[in-house]
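Q: Please design a sequence for this.
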Protein backbone atom coordinates (compact mmCIF):
# COMPACT_ATOMS: atom_id res chain seq x y z
CA UNK A 1 0.00 0.00 0.00
CA UNK A 2 1.33 3.43 -0.94
CA UNK A 3 1.01 5.65 2.14
CA UNK A 4 2.08 9.27 2.53
CA UNK A 5 2.07 11.79 5.33
CA UNK A 6 0.79 15.32 4.73
CA UNK A 7 2.28 17.27 7.65
CA UNK A 8 1.59 20.81 8.70
CA UNK A 9 0.55 23.12 11.46
CA UNK A 10 -2.81 23.76 9.74
CA UNK A 11 -3.45 26.82 11.93
CA UNK A 12 -6.01 26.96 10.41
CA UNK A 13 -6.59 24.64 7.47
CA UNK A 14 -7.37 26.50 4.24
CA UNK A 15 -8.87 25.60 0.88
CA UNK A 16 -5.28 25.52 -0.42
CA UNK A 17 -4.41 22.80 2.10
CA UNK A 18 -7.50 20.86 1.08
CA UNK A 19 -6.55 21.18 -2.59
CA UNK A 20 -3.12 19.67 -1.87
CA UNK A 21 -4.83 16.95 0.18
CA UNK A 22 -7.16 16.11 -2.74
CA UNK A 23 -4.15 15.75 -5.03
CA UNK A 24 -2.33 13.52 -2.52
CA UNK A 25 -5.45 11.37 -2.06
CA UNK A 26 -5.43 10.66 -5.81
CA UNK A 27 -1.75 9.71 -5.83
CA UNK A 28 -1.66 7.48 -2.74
CA UNK A 29 -3.70 4.59 -1.37
CA UNK A 30 -3.68 6.21 2.06
CA UNK A 31 -2.88 9.73 3.27
CA UNK A 32 -2.37 10.68 6.89
CA UNK A 33 -2.82 14.37 7.64
CA UNK A 34 -0.34 14.94 10.46
CA UNK A 35 -1.01 18.05 12.51
CA UNK A 36 2.19 19.21 14.17
CA UNK A 37 1.65 20.10 17.81
CA UNK A 38 4.58 22.54 17.43
CA UNK A 39 3.99 24.88 20.41
CA UNK A 40 7.22 26.72 19.56
CA UNK A 41 5.59 28.06 16.40
CA UNK A 42 2.90 29.74 18.54
CA UNK A 43 -0.24 28.42 16.86
CA UNK A 44 -3.46 30.32 17.51
CA UNK A 45 -5.51 27.12 17.96
CA UNK A 46 -4.46 24.19 20.13
CA UNK A 47 -3.50 20.94 18.40
CA UNK A 48 -6.73 19.37 19.64
CA UNK A 49 -8.82 22.24 18.22
CA UNK A 50 -6.95 22.10 14.89
CA UNK A 51 -7.67 18.36 14.75
CA UNK A 52 -11.38 19.08 15.32
CA UNK A 53 -11.33 21.67 12.51
CA UNK A 54 -9.50 19.42 10.02
CA UNK A 55 -11.34 16.12 10.56
CA UNK A 56 -14.76 17.06 9.11
CA UNK A 57 -13.07 18.59 6.04
CA UNK A 58 -10.86 15.55 5.45
CA UNK A 59 -13.87 13.20 5.82
CA UNK A 60 -14.76 13.77 2.15
CA UNK A 61 -11.72 11.65 1.25
CA UNK A 62 -12.24 7.95 1.98
CA UNK A 63 -8.51 7.18 2.09
CA UNK A 64 -7.50 9.96 4.51
CA UNK A 65 -7.02 9.90 8.27
CA UNK A 66 -6.10 12.80 10.53
CA UNK A 67 -3.94 12.80 13.66
CA UNK A 68 -1.48 14.93 15.60
CA UNK A 69 2.21 14.33 16.11
CA UNK A 70 5.15 15.70 18.03
CA UNK A 71 8.85 15.27 17.43
CA UNK A 72 10.75 14.60 14.23
CA UNK A 73 8.56 14.19 11.18
CA UNK A 74 10.74 11.42 9.74
CA UNK A 75 10.33 9.38 12.92
CA UNK A 76 6.56 9.79 12.64
CA UNK A 77 6.65 8.75 8.97
CA UNK A 78 8.57 5.57 9.83
CA UNK A 79 6.24 4.79 12.76
CA UNK A 80 3.25 5.15 10.41
CA UNK A 81 4.91 2.85 7.84
CA UNK A 82 4.59 5.54 5.17
CA UNK A 83 6.92 5.94 2.21
CA UNK A 84 6.58 9.63 1.43
CA UNK A 85 5.93 13.14 2.67
CA UNK A 86 3.66 15.46 0.69
CA UNK A 87 4.37 19.19 0.82
CA UNK A 88 2.44 21.96 -0.88
CA UNK A 89 4.30 24.71 -2.73
CA UNK A 90 2.32 27.88 -3.33
CA UNK A 91 5.04 30.07 -4.75
CA UNK A 92 8.76 30.31 -5.27
CA UNK A 93 9.11 31.82 -1.79
CA UNK A 94 8.00 28.46 -0.26
CA UNK A 95 10.57 26.52 -2.24
CA UNK A 96 13.79 27.37 -0.38
CA UNK A 97 12.44 26.45 3.06
CA UNK A 98 10.70 23.31 1.77
CA UNK A 99 13.76 22.26 -0.22
CA UNK A 100 16.02 22.58 2.84
CA UNK A 101 13.59 20.61 5.00
CA UNK A 102 13.36 17.88 2.33
CA UNK A 103 17.16 17.62 2.17
CA UNK A 104 17.43 17.38 5.96
CA UNK A 105 14.73 14.70 6.04
CA UNK A 106 16.56 12.80 3.27
CA UNK A 107 19.77 13.00 5.30
CA UNK A 108 17.99 11.64 8.40
CA UNK A 109 15.96 8.93 6.62
CA UNK A 110 17.05 8.42 2.98
CA UNK A 111 14.30 5.87 2.36
CA UNK A 112 11.56 8.52 2.72
CA UNK A 113 10.69 10.53 -0.39
CA UNK A 114 9.40 14.10 -0.32
CA UNK A 115 6.94 15.03 -3.04
CA UNK A 116 6.08 18.64 -3.77
CA UNK A 117 2.54 19.37 -4.97
CA UNK A 118 1.32 22.66 -6.36
CA UNK A 119 -2.21 23.68 -5.42
CA UNK A 120 -4.58 25.29 -7.86
CA UNK A 121 -3.32 28.77 -8.75
CA UNK A 122 -6.35 30.40 -7.10
CA UNK A 123 -4.82 29.41 -3.74
CA UNK A 124 -1.28 30.57 -4.48
CA UNK A 125 -1.57 33.67 -2.29
CA UNK A 126 -3.56 32.09 0.54
CA UNK A 127 -1.74 31.30 3.77
CA UNK A 128 -2.94 30.51 7.26
CA UNK A 129 -1.08 33.58 8.53
CA UNK A 130 -2.85 35.92 6.09
CA UNK A 131 -6.22 34.32 6.83
CA UNK A 132 -5.72 34.90 10.57
CA UNK A 133 -4.76 38.54 9.94
CA UNK A 134 -7.89 39.15 7.87
CA UNK A 135 -10.08 37.40 10.46
CA UNK A 136 -8.49 39.34 13.33
CA UNK A 137 -9.73 42.61 11.85
CA UNK A 138 -13.20 41.29 11.03
CA UNK A 139 -12.64 40.57 7.34
CA UNK A 140 -14.53 37.87 5.45
CA UNK A 141 -12.42 34.72 5.21
CA UNK A 142 -15.14 32.50 3.75
CA UNK A 143 -13.40 32.40 0.35
CA UNK A 144 -10.24 30.99 1.92
CA UNK A 145 -11.36 28.48 4.57
CA UNK A 146 -14.18 25.96 5.10
CA UNK A 147 -17.30 27.20 6.95
CA UNK A 148 -16.39 25.52 10.26
CA UNK A 149 -12.99 27.22 10.20
CA UNK A 150 -14.48 30.63 9.32
CA UNK A 151 -16.87 30.26 12.28
CA UNK A 152 -14.00 29.27 14.61
CA UNK A 153 -11.94 32.27 13.51
CA UNK A 154 -14.90 34.62 13.95
CA UNK A 155 -15.43 33.26 17.47
CA UNK A 156 -11.71 33.38 18.30
CA UNK A 157 -11.42 37.03 17.36
CA UNK A 158 -14.77 38.06 18.86
CA UNK A 159 -16.47 39.20 15.67
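A: Design:
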Amino acid sequence: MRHCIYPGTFDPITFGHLDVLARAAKLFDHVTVAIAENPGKGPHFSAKHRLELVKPNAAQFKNVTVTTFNGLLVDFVIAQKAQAIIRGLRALTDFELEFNMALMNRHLKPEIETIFVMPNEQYSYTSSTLVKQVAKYGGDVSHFVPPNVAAALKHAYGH
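Q: Thanks. Anything notable?
A: The helical segments are 15-27, 47-58, 73-79, 92-108, 128-136, 147-156. Residues 3-124 form a domain with the Rossmann fold fold (CATH 3.40.50.620).
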